Amino acid sequence: MLVITDEPLRSIGLHLWMKAKELGADAVYVEIIPRKVHGEEPPKPIAEAMKASEVVIAPTSKSITHTIARKEAAERGARVATMPGITEEIFIRTMSVDYELVQRLTNAVADVLDEGREVRVVTGLGTDLTFSIEGRKARRSTGILVNPGDWGNLPSGEAYIAPVEGTANGIVIVDGSMAGIGLLTQPMKMTFRDGVAARIEGGLEAAKLNELLSKYGDEARNLGEFGVGTNPGARVGGVVLEDEKVLGTIHIALGSNFDFGGRVKAPVHLDGVVMRPSVYVDGRLIMKEGALLTST
Fold first, then answer.
1. Residue 215: which residues within 8 A CB-CB, separation 6 or more?
2. Considering the entire predicted model, what is its pTM?
């Protein structure tokens, strides 16, 4: 079992390593220099160690979930749990929920997405976005990682999918939190044209996001992910690891999606959380103002 951490999350990484030793695992602890942005690859020696491990747990300050290293490790049979930005409070609150319920909710949403062709998201603040998911399959992030090659976040609780590139059009008002920014002080307006966030507006926080994205090219503005939160213990507090799992929210991500069914390999993946959405799949209402309508 390999534990990957960095200085900001050292305490959690060390405690996980000590618990792994107590459980009799051949536990390895490694600390990396914090990555500059979510989705940046870990150092090559760490990527090789991940491929040689049976279990990888990664409490790091920046996410390595959507990386080639994670993808190749899972393909080699490693079970990988990433925990970007986790705190002790989040750990206790979200890891103690009924994960069988999380699994049922997640599977119910994912089943609808698997059969769907078009998604529309609407909110009272002005979100009205449509995009295709035809031919794409949803990922079920249930937190239950028991088979070789299973991977996902811990804490968990989301069903997510890679929208078809070039199909997203409309407006998203991100009013919860944004990866790379944190809890938003004012809503952020993203205007999508042909799959790309052509404009991002919303004061200083939007300016910060635009500056961040400018370092990574046009693919960093790709609508890379659509996800639905399914964890009843999670709440929005500025740490996207937890925020995107909140039951009653959806999130979209900009950037990379090659590792879960898309075609974009950007060196960044940034999630934005939308509160109280209504969601339609092929015209069927599956969430009404944050209330999930799919049966479990």
1. none
2. 0.87
